[in-house]
Amino acid sequence: MKHTSLPDTAPDAMVNQLADDAQALLPPAAPPSRREFVRAALGTGFAAAAMPIMAQTVIKTSSDGLLVGEVTIPVGDFKMPAYRAVPQGRTNAPVILVISEIFGVHEHIADIARRFAKLGYCAIAPELFVRQGDPGSYGEIAKLISEVVAKVPDAQVMGDLDATVAWAKAQGMDTGKLGITGFCWGGRITWLYAAHNPAVKAGVAWYGRLVGEPNALSPKNPVDLVGELKAPALGLYGGKDTGITLDTVDTMKKALASGSPAAKQSEFVVYPEAGHAFNADYRASYLKSAADDGWQRCSAWFRSHGVA
């Protein structure tokens, strides 16, 4: 696969939109220690920019009975790292793509994958920022967004996810039962991939951006793709999200109502007391009641749409 060169600076509109999405992730905090900056491997530790960590609420899902860890997925001549979790010895498992926040595939995203694996899925979280940089090495959200996240083309992400699905099929997994879920940045990607790949059966988007100004790297947003949506998506959003406001949710709802058959089957659940990143159990933004309900709805959505 040929990869085109990218501009040195991302479009200002994209940076501003991503910064708005991440606003709730910026509580006052002391600078993290050197030890906190270090991430040993994919799916371990937390990105430096995600500090401070709320250790008392972090969920730890055991890997007992699971095959977990980093794998390498070929994308043309490029080798993309990903975190994979699947029941030990299980073949032909349904597949869930787990798409990270702006912080990349760290411990929380790996834990989400293990939660799906405990339900019988092969869950794969690809590191979609790896060509542009390492999110775990950044200590500032603004720099992470401008220097890495905003330089990732949507087309590159779609291709990487296609390669992930192909890899899962080659491993003997059941890509005829394919779902995708994502958080924040990954929530937007969930909507996009549900419009891109007809093999997707269902998507669950957690507080992903829905509208925005188009640019060369992100020519369309979810609201622009409702006519192309190939799988019904469940949107889980926060009523107090200052970055992804309820008026944009309403705009998306209206667009879905006149979209494709899958768009018309899509639904939203808004948690009135939740802000952005309410499922991020390692952050101060975590709201257990909304996160628990969202997980139950997410699991049920996949089951009811043939991803089980």
Number of domains: 1
**Looking at the structure, what is the overall shape?**
globular
List the strand order in the largest sheet: 1-2-4-3-5-6-7-8
Helix count? 9
CATH class: Alpha Beta
Mean pLDDT score, rounded? Answer: 90
The CATH architecture can be named as: 3-Layer(aba) Sandwich
Work out the strand percent: 15-25%
The CATH topology label is Rossmann fold
Helix and strand string, N-terminal first? HHEEEHEHHEHEEHHEH
The largest pleated sheet is described as: 8 strands, mixed
Secondary structure: helix percent: 25-40%
CATH superfamily: Alpha/Beta hydrolase fold, catalytic domain
Distance between the termini: 32 Å
Tell me the radius of gyration. Answer: 18 Å
Derived structural class: alpha/beta
Instruction: Name the poorly predicted regions.
Output: 1-10, 23-40
